[in-house]
Amino acid sequence: MTTTNAPLPPAGRPRGRGQSPISGVPDVSGELRRLMLRDRWLIDLLADHQVFTTEQVAALCFDHVHTARNRLNLLAGRGVLARFRDAVRPGSQSWRWALGWLGAAFIAYRDGSPVPRPGTIAHRVNHLAASPRLAHLLGVNGFFTDLAAYARHAPDATLSVWWPERRCRDICGDLAHPDGHGVWTEDGPTVGFWLEYDRASEPAHRVLGKLDGYQALHRASGLQHTVLIRMQTARQETELQRRLATHPAITAGGLLVATASGDHATHPAGPVWLPAGHTQRHRLAHLPAGTAERLAA
Asked: Which residues pair with 82 in a beta bridge?
């Protein structure tokens, strides 16, 4: 199948065989026989993480981006997925992919939840497309996608836990508000971490202000996950590291914090992480590890 930029049906509303003979009822049972295991896995991921780019989907579960485009366009044409992108000149922005009506209905039927109306899904996709936090969400998902894609091709590496912001909120309550949580293993060592993904939208004092919450969370739960702070530039990271050196949550509370910046331009699994108070960068799996198993369980 050739990739095409022809208009798709309205976001979330399937066409043709997407509806059963009972008008307005999604034909999930009819779609099941055409969904591959990889499709169902992708639907599950989108239910948790909301949106991916074409390249992120390809890295997660395809060997070639061209194959990913073809399959994604097919699923969108059937209403399983929805897609959107901004106009970019010159050229075209990569498509962003979210759950369409049939994909959302599949999740609802499976989980015993109310089935959303097509208009509800269309509004959800429109909200994603217009959200000022879209770039941040894609950045967070890209961080975890890089780890998951690395683990696909490295037999001794595993991303065993990948939680979105919403699930972290359920666990952390008002104590801390991480952008994600993961448990990463490579060549034996395992590290559990909270991710703070900064796009230069927050001043350093606000980032530092979050550390007391993480210390309180760890004190209440017994966890000792590392707090990863991903900065945009080396200059921002250097300034943050200077202030981390005297932060009480680290010096007195024993909170484990490590930083990296986009200027390093290497993989998040690699030797890009600088623990607070240290001078040498470490691979992610070699950072100080806490009781990762407790939260993962």
From this structure: 98
